[in-house]
Write a structure and sequence with these properties.
The protein is mostly helical. Helices cover 68% and strands 2% of the residues. A hairpin with a 6-residue loop joins strand 1 (132-134) and strand 2. Helix 1 runs antiparallel to helix 2, helix 2 runs antiparallel to helix 8 (218-235) and helix 7 (183-207) packs antiparallel against helix 8 (218-235).
Amino acid sequence: MHTFGWIGSLSLLLTVICSSAVNRHLTWMNLNFSWIIACFAAALLLTSGQLFKDTPNSSICLIQSSTMLAVPSLTAGTTLSFLWIEIKCRAQDRKAATSFQWDAALALMPFIFPFVFLVIGFTNGYQNPSSVILAPSKMACINTNMPTASQVTIAYCTALMVPTVVLSFLVNLEVYRHWKETLAKMIRLAVFMFFSLIAVVINVIVASGANFGTAYGVPNILVSLAPVSYVLVFATQKDIISAWMFWRRRNHAQPLEKSPTIEIV
């Protein structure tokens, strides 16, 4: 499912970049980009042909273990910044009147902490290659020599989860006020929020070292539900579908207007 997640997220991101009829805020692109990284990292053994090997390539394992340490905080940060802009735009009648500096800050901030831990994880794994091993589930490589970094990641993700829950509630409340007109949006929004929180919670549990079906890859499967749900939620938006079904447009039809709004569902 991780493979479906990164391919689907990449397809959505390329659609927004290449189609003049589809407009999304920079934080929306960031969210998709973060899940491309997360899903690609989780599926790296499969993608590189190392999944069924008892001893995967050490370089592949090092890259994966380092990236997997960073992606929980990355996806948590991009989700929070996305929801922040979403509620701000709803408060301004859906008009994303934000400055370029503010947009750039929201785009860059979620990458700062993960990048630091990516470098730390890579350096630690490179200096201690024996600590980079295949996880019990045999679905990914992990670094067993970074308990402190894992605890800091837990604290960071937990701190981000609190405002994420609050913003999720506010967005749901705003949509609920217009539920008669946006029932389909409510359903997609509920799916989006539920799996967003599930992904953060599972990542925190795994990082804490708790034995939550780890040997059977249960956490890996549960976390992969989040990007899969994102792809399904975003891919059912009207302008995305219209951009994909370009052959159905009539030659004389005017192109869809690129509005200054962003859409979560």
